[in-house]
Give the backbone structure.
Amino acid sequence: MHDPAVSAIATLVVLLIGFLYNNSRLTDVRVSVKDSMDALRTVVEAKFQMVEAKFQAVEANQRRGEDMLLGKFAELDDRLTRIENLLKIR
């Protein structure tokens, strides 16, 4: 009734259609994953820039504190030098 070649060709056609369908779905998944990774990379980069900006602000604040502290030490040194000169300790 049926030719074996027709059955084999029909089977190959069905397999080819299934393969192409799955391949297109895998491409869709790959594109979706790539888009998600790109979005995640953007978020991470934005957060990193935010953290870096805060770190720079903390460093600047620390430098101001260090400068203020050094200024106070300089004032104390000047006062001590004046006291020593008045008392002729040195």
Q: What stands out?
A: The CA atoms of residues 10 and 43 lie 49 Å apart.
